[in-house]
Design brief:
409 residues; alpha/beta; Carbamate kinase; 2 domains; eight-stranded mixed β-sheet; six-stranded antiparallel β-sheet; 28% strand
Length: 409
């Protein structure tokens, strides 16, 4: 007998009608002879009564500690588990639920965005020995001090994969309102193609570069433990998209696209220090202080400009601009920049696929496609499976359509 972990988001749990679709997916697995661990999110979105954002709206969060906010926001998932149990039990199914501690997901003490440290599944396995369905609250764990923690945005995806690892599940199904993973966002690119499968590495790049189908941390964890993820629709019984390891893709002789996806984001900014003193290790000190400020640098470029001077350019998230400017001001006497230029309204378009490393002219094709359509490329970054171009924010959607047509049209 197999155990399937199924994760259902707020669009699945929000109402009696949507939960009926959710239960059909659970029952299908039971009828196939499997047992199900269902990981559920809070019911709906703001302003549904028990949604996470609704719960936050009824308090003054400035007056609560992060630990208290975690206690509040974890309540929505707990309510979902009990609602789902009551309804499935009334339908005649043998169902159990687990508490926060029984989840077995232990984390550090970084409330509101905790990192999983260990995971064990004996409580869930014990309940599976006497029930056909075990319902778990998503998005949460507990610290070594026994305090409730939450896992940040997309945390229920991460919960589901962690539980899958702990109980050695056959598969983790991630349900949402879309029926799989596409080569681009269908709302932006109407001709986007649904993928039957995608590698962990490609999915991780898509998730980190703007695609919102799967949380990147859940993909990392699945890759580490070789857990198969099946991304599929709550409202459509057809197969979705499997996220697999490269070895399994090659073993099954699947025909893999050169490009698996094109995605974009619109929340970048560029900071340029002009005429920095090249005689000191300015960049090294700058990065050390930026790291201390908990800011990630997405792209870095350093160029000597003569006269013992160099220019340093950084691409960062636009919300981090104030922190980086403060760091630069603190180092002004060491760096001695002639001026600092902050350019907002930067976006990114990324072309992702395992075929990039084995096919010549890929960067040239990306660059020429954008420039020939009057989209100026300000900075770039490349890896074996990712070509990212930083462009004007207003051009990001147009760029995705043009690149999809160029590579997959």
């Amino acid at each position: 007998m197999k155990v399937i972990v199924q994760k259902f988001g707020g669009t699945s749990t929000r109402s009696v009608e949507t939960r009926e679709h959710m239960y059909k997916n659970i029952i299908r697995e039971l009828e196939a002879g499997n047992k199900v661990v269902a990981v559920v999110s809070a019911m709906g979105r703001y302003d549904d009564p028990y949604a996470t954002d609704t719960l936050l709206s009824i308090v003054n969060t400035d007056e609560l500690t992060d630990e208290e906010i975690d206690r509040l926001t974890s309540i929505g998932e707990t309510i979902s588990t009990l609602v789902c149990k009551s309804e499935l039990s009334k339908m005649g199914y043998n169902v159990e639920t687990v508490t926060n501690v029984e989840l077995g997901i232990q984390t550090d003490s970084h409330h509101m965005n905790a990192t999983i440290t260990t995971v064990e599944g004996h409580h869930i396995q014990e309940k599976l020995s006497r029930a056909d369905i075990v319902i778990c609250p998503g998005f949460q764990g507990y610290s070594q001090k026994g305090k409730v923690t939450t896992l940040g945005r997309g945390g229920s995806d991460l919960s589901a994969v962690a539980i899958g690892v702990a109980i050695d599940a056959s598969e983790v199904e991630i349900y949402s309102d879309v029926n799989g993973i596409y080569t681009a966002d269908p709302r932006i690119v109407p001709d986007a193609i649904k993928l039957d499968y995608i590698s962990y590495a490609e999915m991780l790049e898509l998730s980190k570069n703007g695609a919102k189908v799967l949380n990147h941390r859940c993909v990392q964890l699945a890759a580490k433990h070789d857990i198969v993820i099946h991304a599929r629709s709550s409202f459509d019984a057809s197969q979705g998209t499997y996220v697999l390891g490269d070895e399994r893709i090659m073993k099954d002789h699947l025909n893999q696209l050169i490009i698996s996806g094109i995605t974009g984001s619109q929340n970048e900014a560029r900071v340029t220090l002009v005429g920095v003193d090249a005689k000191v290790n300015g960049a090294g000190q700058l990065f050390e202080k930026i790291a201390d400020a908990n800011v990630n640098v997405n792209v870095f470029n350093q160029a000597l400009v003569g006269g013992g001077k160099m220019d340093i350019s950084l691409i960062i998230n636009d919300k981090d601009v104030p922190a980086v400017v403060e760091v630069i001001n603190d180092l002004k006497e060491i760096l001695k920049p002639q001026k600092t230029i902050v350019r907002g309204n930067i976006g990114k378009v990324a072309v992702i696929g395992v075929g990039i490393k084995n096919n010549k002219g890929m960067f040239q094709k990306v660059y020429n496609t954008l420039m020939s359509n009057d989209i100026n490329v300000e900075m770039t970054s490349c890896s074996e499976i990712n070509i990212s171009c930083y462009i004007d924010r207003d051009d990001v959607k147009k760029a995705q359509v043009l690149l999809h047509e160029a590579f997959l049209g």
